[in-house]
Amino acid sequence: MQVLERLTREAVQLAEGEVARQMQICNACRYCEGFCAVFPAMTRRLEFSASDVHYLANLCHNCGACLHACQYAPPHEFAVNIPQAMARVRRHTYERFAWPDGLGVLYWRNGLLVSMALALGIALFLMLAIWLHDGYQPGVAGQSFYNVFPHGLMVSMFLPVFAWAVVALGLGALNFLREVKPATSAAPASQSRSDRSSPPTSMRNTR
Ligand code: SF4
Ligand code: SF4
């Protein structure tokens, strides 16, 4: 178990280090500056701590625009693939900041879990409908869905679920906000856009 935890920790550190590496290339290039909120936030940092990487990864909404525009994407040796690198870190942040703590690991199997919960939920609802109406009665719905499941019953079942979701998301977001800090290493304001429009000489390899 300890070996697994160590391997997981190392994989996360590698993913965070990879985002930091790619962000440093982007910070020299800045071609994608107007694409999304990630790039303006990135320019306010010269180095990327783990909390910076977590913050930037959650600003990315995985649209893929920067990958398609990037002249340093694979097969270039810089291998810049921002959406992929961000997605790896983002999944880790979902797990790390989730509330309650132990449930974060469920994100690793979210597709399977959601499918199973959906199938189970539908089965339970069908059984509840049969139980409420003493067996299968085709005409019971009439003109209203609430003839099958009364409105009060629906509210009493889903209000606690809704409240739980709001509390869990709120506390997860609070955990996240406690870790991220404002940028402290902004790029010099005097640095003009034209100065920043191309990477340093050491990065100007062409395919
Ligand atoms: S073109 Fe590539 S290296 Fe440049 S900012 Fe966009 S993603 Fe980063
Ligand atoms: S993939 Fe992410 S970082 Fe790239 S442009 Fe889209 S939102 Fe921005």
Task: Provide structural commentary.
The structure is a single chain. This protein is mainly α. It has 2 domains: 2-100 and 184-190, no CATH class; 106-178. Helices cover 56% and strands 0% of the residues. The protein is built from 7 helices and no strands. The chain has helices at residues 2-29, 38-42, 50-59, 65-69, 82-97, 110-132, 151-179. It starts with a helix and ends in a 28-residue tail after the last helix. The model is unreliable at 186-207 (pLDDT under 50). One iron/sulfur cluster binds at residues 35-36, 38, 60-66, 82-83, 86. One iron/sulfur cluster is lined by residues 35-36, 38, 60-66, 82-83, 86.
List keywords for this structure.
binds iron/sulfur cluster; disordered C terminus; 7 helices; 207 residues; mainly alpha
Cofactors, ions, other ligands: iron/sulfur cluster
Give the averaged pLDDT, no decimals: 83
Total discrete domains:
2
Which class do the helix and strand fractions yield?
A: mainly alpha
H/E element order: HHHHHHH
Annotation field: number of helices:
7
* Helix proportion range: 55-70%
Strand content: under 5%
Computed over alpha carbons, the radius of gyration is: 24 Å
Oligomer: single chain
Shape: elongated
Tally of strands: 0
Task: Give the biggest sheet.
Answer: none
Cα separation of the termini: 44 Å
Low-confidence segments = 186-207
